TrEMBL record:
InterPro entries on file: Amidase, Amidase_CS, Amidase_dom, AS_sf, GatA
Source organism of the structure: Paenibacillus gansuensis
Keyword Glycosyltransferase: no
Protein name (record): Glutamyl-tRNA(Gln) amidotransferase subunit A
Gene (UniProt): gatA
Principal EC category: ligase
Length: 453
């Protein structure tokens, strides 16, 4: 088997299913086969192979790839080709993975269903009438449909974990600061993290091993030792202490999802772990806190799209008109909604009441986690309150859409790592189990996920 064979198999699968799944925004066959050829030549030399040698990978389209169009699924960037690689893209090359193409998402990662892509929505491979989740919906669907071996997504409030749950694959959001954000188009800089979406937990460990680590190009990158994640997959969870927040299995959680989570806990119990009910008392405030903070940061980050520096430029007679027209035409409805909300929350007179207050509540939410982690190794609950919903079902109802992230958002606000692993089905659609760990304890999160899987 050669790398060219692997890449050929990936493109063959894409040609068979992607007209239905619609996971990809950009494919570059020539480039992929060139990379494959170069790796095949290395096979002959007996040189040591990278950790991801020859594996066909997809990359979410908000991650900068040199010479490969990067759109954030926005009309603003529909013709934008970066001149540099994000650190993670460089690291995938160093690990010798082959980039197959760029994956669909909600515009600028704002959304939870892929329906905010300004091109077209991706479909859930398990049932094409359903959403794949979002915002990394293309990344999850491409793996679930077997179009690539693994993919990278980004998670600000659930965008890796929720689509992974909806598509029945494994999605890991690392601790904030573990994986470099350099070259990730910023949505909410204090929350954004890049992570792997894979078929199983072992693959997740391989990809994380390849992309984690300090990067001087990201001022929030953490200087921590990177453990050997693969050797953490021992299968042993004897004596492990699991906290199960009562807020994560209460109101708003589909009874079938709850049932799947409880049976997953039984499996872990059978392996020698113990679980107890705990409380994260500020959970109810997490969604409001997140939408204030994430939108505030987004309104500031997206100021750079002015029609001058990046992407599309509208015809205009003067500078103000240039900004106005470029931004009016370039951004979709949800992005505009967030920019307006964020600008409002940051404006003088409202800053203290909204932005500052939300920052304080964020601290309380983080303290909830600290308190539980003083006595427990991991926290377990569902990844999302329901399985995937039908395309079109929630598009006109942003508030309902926001509530899909009720159990992923608190984790993002606390900055801690979490993985979603498949734990069953409800009405023929996959359900995800969320395993949350202490900061920089991805090893334990992966160990538990692997033992359960
Ligand atoms: N669905 C959430 C939102 O719309 C999370 C998005 C994300 O994690 N990028 O903001």
């Amino acid at each position: 088997l050669t790398v060219t064979d692997l890449v050929g198999a990936s493109y063959k699968r894409i040609s068979e299913v992607d007209s239905k799944v619609k996971a990809f925004l950009t494919l570059d066959e020539e480039r992929a086969f060139n990379e494959a050829g170069a790796l095949d030549a290395k096979l002959q030399t007996g040189e040591e192979r990278g950790l991801l040698f020859g594996l066909p990978a997809g990359i979410k389209d908000n991650i900068s790839t040199e010479g490969l169009r990067t759109t954030c699924a926005s009309q603003f960037l529909k013709n934008f080709t970066p001149v540099y690689d994000a650190t993670v893209a460089k690291k995938l090359k160093a690990a010798q993975a082959v980039t197959i193409g760029k994956l669909n998402m909600d515009e600028f990662a704002m959304g939870g269903s892929n329906e905010n892509s300004s091109f077209f929505p991706t479909h859930n491979p398990w049932n094409l009438d359903y959403v794949p989740g979002g915002s990394s919906g293309g990344s999850a669907a491409a793996v679930a449909a077997g179009e690539v071996y693994f993919s990278l997504g980004s998670d600000t409030g659930g965008s890796i974990r929720q689509p992974a749950a909806y598509c029945g694959v494994v999605g890991l959001k690392p601790t904030y600061g573990l994986v470099s954000r350099f070259g990730l188009v910023a949505f909410a800089s204090s929350l954004d993290q890049i992570g792997p979406i894979t078929k199983n937990v072992e693959d997740s460990a391989y990809v994380l091993q390849s992309i984690a680590g300090y990067d001087e190009m990201d001022s929030t990158s953490a200087k921590v030792d990177i453990p050997d994640y693969l050797s953490a997959l021992t299968g042993d969870v004897k004596g492990l202490r699991i906290g199960v927040p009562k807020e994560y299995l209460g109101q708003g959680i589909d009874p079938k999802v709850k049932e799947s989570v409880l049976s997953a806990l039984k499996v872990l119990e059978g392996l020698g772990a113990v679980w107890e009910e705990v409380s994260l008392p500020h959970t109810d405030y997490a969604v409001a806190t997140y939408y204030l903070l994430a939108s505030s940061e987004a309104s500031s980050n997206l100021a750079r799209f002015d029609g001058v520096r990046y992407g599309e430029r509208a015809d205009a007679d003067n500078l103000i008109e240039l900004y106005h027209k470029s931004r009016s035409q370039g951004f979709g409805t949800e992005v505009k909604r967030r920019i307006m909300l964020g600008t409002y929350a940051l404006s003088s007179g409202y800053y203290d009441a909204y932005y500052l207050k939300a920052q304080k509540v964020r601290t309380l939410i983080k303290q909830d986690f600290d308190q539980v982690f003083a006595n427990y190794d991991v926290i377990i609950g569902p990844t999302a309150p329901t399985p995937a919903f039908k395309l079109g079902e929630q598009v006109d109802d942003p508030l309902t859409m926001y509530l899909n992230d009720i159990v992923t958002i608190p984790v993002s606000l606390a900055g801690v790592p979490a993985v979603s692993v498949p734990c069953g089905f409800a009405d023929g659609l996959p359900v995800g189990l969320q395993i949350i760990g202490k900061a920089f304890d991805e090893a334990t999160v992966l160990r538990v996920a692997h033992a359960f899987e």
